[in-house]
Structure formats: structure tokens, C-alpha cells
């Protein structure tokens, strides 16, 4: 018998190193990603009962009703929900509901946070108890292997563990190194952070395939950009540990430059306008969240935080709140 269970997991800001967690680069050369979880959360809830398997993604406005587990393999939408139920091997009638506070296509790792919340909620519903590492590993399998969605693994680990982390990838291994900035520095970083949503990302799995095929072919521009981003992540660790905001901003800008070298579609016209406006407003640096091609950008304001926020709003961007999520996945 299953029971009612809920779980939440935070999305993240990736300060440096995103893309280096994606195979084959992460397998051959090893990747490194520095990020921090923020209090925009994905939620999954399991409600036993009913007469079917009812899957609901509230924030997307999507509902799918299946007669039984045999229909979970059918390509009928809500791929993560169906994959989660296949992995959990549940066949009893239930409702599996999700919701995410981050906007759709934000680049904040919302699908990874949903993966984590789904795994944790379904485990709790069946009486299981998993530690964050087990949840992160299962969430990665859910998306990459069961749902067959191409990508890296930083989002699931950031959502499961929370806080500031350095994640080192050498497939199949993942090393999680907690970073512990002082309370004063963390508060100042959050105060200066300008998180802007510029519309849903047009990024797709085909972009990952294109970039990694270029890497495998030895494209010097792509190879060099990935290698530099891995180095930027290691340098970002030292910038955070030394609590050097100017250096953090400069490294974010460096990472964004390398990210754009991977593919021409990384920076949309709206992102270019936003980047130019925030630079003119005196920010210390900024970058796209996640893979790019739309979604969110985030910046560290210089002396005048209000001016940076006004500049973002004037471009038409929507500002999102930034509060660090020191706790990762929660289950009850």
C-alpha cells in the first residue's frame, strides 16, 4: 500500500562550469560546476486512490490519465512523471502532482529539481527513506536513462544537497564538495544578485548533441571553451572562499563568454540587450543560467543595486527573488 507523501527540492544558480557535466566531456576530461541552490522549489505529491494513474503538472497546466502501468511507456507527454512511476514500479491508482515555482524554461534546473522531488516523494509514499546522494543518483537515472533526456547531472545534485557546492564529474563518479561562505558574505551576495527572466529558453536536446559532436570532432573553439569553463569553476571556488565579489563577477562574465563560444544560439537578442543594459548599469559580471538560448540571466550588481534592477526591468525582463536554499530535498 502507498501513502500520501510530498517532497520539495530547490532550483539553482550555476556560477561556473555548466556544460562540463555533460558527457562525453565529463567522461573523458572530467567536469566541474560551482553553484548554489535558491528558494524557488519544485514540489511533488503522491495522493493514493482513484481509479487510474493521474499525472498532473500544475505549473504547465498539463494532466494525463492512464488506465494502468502498461500505458506508462506510451509517449503521451509528462515524460518525467511517467519515468518516475516506471522506476518506482507502482501500479496502484494514484495522483502524482508536481509544481515548480521557477518559470518554465528558466534555465534554473527546474527539471532536475522535479526529478529529485519525484524520486523522494515516491520513495516516501512506499515507506522508503533515501539519503540525498541516493536521491540525486536515482534522479539522474530517471531523466537520462528512463526518460532519455540528454543533459548533465549538476541540477539533480544541486537540488538534492542544497547550499553552495563544487561538483566534480568523472563519469560515473560525482564528487560533492560543500562550500561554506560566511553568513555576511552570503547575505551580501544575495542582496546584490539580480536574477532576470527574459522568457522561456529555446534550448533543446539537439543543441547538446550539436555541441558534443563538435567536441568529439575536435573543434578547437568548442574544446577550448569547455576546458576553460572547467578552469573557471575551480577559480570560482577560490573567489567564493576569499569572498571576493569583484572576482566572482569577472569569472561569471568569463564563463558566459566561453558558453557563447559553444554554439551561436546561446545568446538570444533579448539576452544580448539585457547583458548590455546591466553592464551599462555597472554590474560586476553576469551570465546565462543553465544552458542558455533564453531563460534567466543573473548578475552581481556593483555599487547601485537599485539602478541594476531598474535597468533589467526597462529591458522587459522579470525579476525573480534570490534567497539561498541551505537545505536540499525535503520529504514529509
Structural class: alpha+beta
> What pattern of helices and strands is seen along the backbone?
EHEEEHEHHHEEHEHHHHEEHEE
Give the CATH architecture of the largest domain: 2-Layer Sandwich
Helix count, per DSSP?
11
The largest β sheet comes out as: 8 strands, mixed
The level 1 CATH classification of the largest domain is Alpha Beta
User: Uncertain segments of ≥5 residues (pLDDT<50)?
Assistant: none
Using the CA coordinates, give the radius of gyration. Answer: 19 Å
What count of structural domains?
Answer: 2
Give the DSSP E fraction (strand runs of 2 or more residues).
15-25%
Q: What is the CATH topology of the largest domain?
A: Ribosomal Protein S5, domain 2
The count of DSSP E runs of length 2 or more, i.e. the number of strands, is: 12
Distance between the termini: 17 Å
Amino acid at each position: 500500500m502507498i501513502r500520501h507523501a510530498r517532497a520539495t527540492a530547490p532550483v539553482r544558480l550555476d556560477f561556473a562550469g555548466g556544460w562540463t557535466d555533460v558527457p562525453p566531456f565529463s567522461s573523458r576530461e572530467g567536469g566541474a560546476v560551482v553553484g548554489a541552490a535558491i528558494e524557488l522549489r519544485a514540489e511533488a505529491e503522491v495522493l493514493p486512490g482513484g481509479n487510474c494513474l493521474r499525472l498532473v503538472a500544475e505549473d504547465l497546466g498539463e494532466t494525463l490519465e492512464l488506465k494502468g502501468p502498461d500505458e506508462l511507456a506510451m509517449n503521451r507527454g509528462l515524460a518525467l512523471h511517467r519515468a518516475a512511476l516506471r522506476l518506482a514500479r507502482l501500479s496502484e491508482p494514484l495522483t502524482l502532482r508536481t509544481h515548480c515555482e521557477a518559470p518554465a524554461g528558466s534555465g534554473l534546473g527546474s527539471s532536475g529539481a522535479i526529478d529529485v522531488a519525484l524520486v523522494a516523494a515516491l520513495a516516501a509514499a512506499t515507506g522508503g527513506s533515501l539519503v540525498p546522494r541516493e536521491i540525486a543518483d536515482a534522479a539522474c537515472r530517471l531523466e537520462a536513462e528512463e526518460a532519455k533526456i540528454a543533459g548533465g547531472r549538476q541540477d539533480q545534485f544541486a537540488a538534492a544537497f542544497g547550499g553552495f557546492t563544487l561538483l566534480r564529474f568523472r563519469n560515473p563518479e560525482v564528487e560533492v564538495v560543500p562550500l561554506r561562505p560566511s553568513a555576511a558574505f552570503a547575505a551580501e551576495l544575495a542582496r546584490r544578485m539580480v536574477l532576470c527572466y527574459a522568457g522561456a529558453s529555446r534550448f533543446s536536446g539537439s543543441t547538446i548533441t550539436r555541441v558534443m559532436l563538435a567536441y568529439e570532432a575536435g573543434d578547437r573553439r568548442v574544446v577550448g571553451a569547455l576546458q576553460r569553463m572547467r578552469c573557471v569553476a575551480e577559480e570560482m571556488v577560490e573567489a567564493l572562499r576569499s569572498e571576493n565579489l569583484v572576482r566572482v563577477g569577472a569569472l561569471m562574465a568569463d564563463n558566459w563568454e566561453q558558453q557563447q563560444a559553444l554554439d551561436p544560439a546561446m545568446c538570444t537578442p533579448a539576452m544580448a540587450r539585457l547583458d548590455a543594459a546591466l553592464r551599462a548599469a555597472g554590474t560586476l559580471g553576469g551570465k546565462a543560467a543553465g544552458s542558455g538560448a533564453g531563460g534567466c540571466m543573473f548578475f552581481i550588481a556593483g555599487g547601485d543595486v537599485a539602478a541594476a534592477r531598474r535597468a533589467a526591468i526597462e529591458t522587459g525582463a522579470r525579476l525573480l527573488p534570490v534567497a539561498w536554499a541551505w537545505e536540499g530535498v525535503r520529504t514529509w
